[in-house]
Design a protein that fits this description.
Elements: H1 15-33, E1 46-47, E2 51-53, E3 63-68, E4 73-78, E5 83-87, H2 93-106, H3 140-161, E6 172-174, E7 179-189, H4 198-203, E8 206-214, E9 224-230, E10 246-250, E11 253-259, H5 260-265, H6 269-287, H7 292-295
Antiparallel strand pairs: 1-2, 2-3, 3-4, 4-5, 6-7, 7-8, 8-9, 9-11, 10-11
Amino acid sequence: MELLPAVPYESWSGTIPTLHRFAQVVGKVRLAASPLRNHWWNVPLHLTGRGTTTRPMGLDPTFSIDLDFLDHRLTVDALDGRRASFPLVGRSVADFHAGLVDALTAVGADGSVLDGARPFDLPDADRPFADDTEHATYDPAAVTRYWQVLSQVNLLLEEFAGAFTGKTSPVHHFWHTFDIALTRFSDTVVQHPPGTDRVTREAYSREVVSSGFWFGDPTFPEPAFYSYTAPEPAGLAEDPLPHGAGWVERGASHLAVLPYEVARAAPDRRVAVLEFYEAAYRAGATRAGWDVDALAHRPA
């Protein structure tokens, strides 16, 4: 299939909120059942050849949760061979929540970790998943396309990761924000102000330049590639970006944004995305005082 096929936000704007909440329900289990890694690297989901996975977690039992976006099923597999599965099509978030609780229980895992679980940073954050019958739209073709695009961007980010010799995160699919990202780190410790929450302190304990992609939401209704530097160095938004990309204000900071359709219109889509990531990274890292040349990987 073509690299970066069309995936306009409006074509599946009803499915995205449902799928996002499905991912958050699974993510809540991942958060509860996996040992803490630096920068919360234990929490996100990862890509498979058919969808996404939590990877193995838990000790008694050890199990994984996989979302298959070709057959459109959720499967829970335990280390001892026990398995439970159910279809995704035609389910509300409440149905999905109940199905996952039952599936966890069937393989001997603790389904109670989802008791009272609620969305994170979404408009209905006060409503338990178990009560959400509103979000029930699931277009299988759109979900398959989402996974295909996600898989292609995953590989572009993997390629981008290979050009850096410093500390780099895995490529993560973040269930809370429903994006995919790769983060480069410096060794500089960030001194957060008093009152900074625990999540932020751990995630941004070092200076970072993060590069990623998201599918859009009601506040930004189009898919786009992005990059940001945290903490943001002074003057970052003054630096040039490739044609069609720009700096977007995000509160007191800025996000480098390359609209998906601009990348699709480029003579070489892969090159356009990688050049955008590199330009945004160099802008942030240079202004933050990183030794950009020393950190560059140049294969022999």
